[in-house]
Design goal:
153 residues, alpha/beta, Nucleotidyltransferase, domain 5, five-stranded mixed beta sheet, two-stranded antiparallel ribbon, 31% helix, elongated
């Protein structure tokens, strides 16, 4: 029974294979997203647009207009992280369809783990046996092994 372990953050993902319950890890693939390291200012060149409300505000003089900037709910970095989560999910879906794993363990910081979970198709989601809400991508493989769930006896 092959287990796929994904250790990821918003800029890098490592895919491991684990044979048996506590066998050695074997690195299969690494994905990177260089755009994830950029600042918001590097994604766009100017401030958000301006909106002018033409209705008068109660208590203000007639004909006065209010203005404010428009801002999206998501920052460009968050949008890029969601695209990367979809890319990881696509890799996992392909591997699942090709029956390269039967069990899946996800290890990521809580915010990115939620993005991964949302991006995964149902078939791959059904293979999830554990989620570890820790950012272990920059740690050694021994840290990944240490955070694996204990096998059921």
């Amino acid at each position: 029974m092959s287990t796929r372990i994904v250790v990821a953050d918003q800029s890098e993902a490592r895919f491991y294979e684990l044979e048996g319950a506590r066998g050695p890890l074997r690195l299969i693939e690494t994905l990177t997203d260089p755009k994830a390291r950029l600042h918001d200012r590097d994604f766009k060149s100017d401030r958000p647009g301006r909106v002018f409300d033409h209705a008068s505000t109660p208590g203000k003089r007639r004909g006065a207009t209010a203005h404010h900037s428009t801002g999206g709910e998501r920052s460009p970095r968050e949008h890029e992280a969601q695209l990367f989560a979809r890319r990881i999910a696509q890799e996992l879906e392909t591997a699942h369809d090709e029956k390269r794993y039967s069990r899946l363990i996800l290890m990521s910081a809580p915010a990115f783990l939620g993005m991964l979970r949302a991006a995964l198709p149902k078939a791959a989601s059904a293979a999830i046996v554990a989620e570890v809400p820790k950012d272990l991508i920059h740690g050694p493989e021994s840290a990944v092994l240490a955070h694996l769930p204990q096998p059921e006896s």
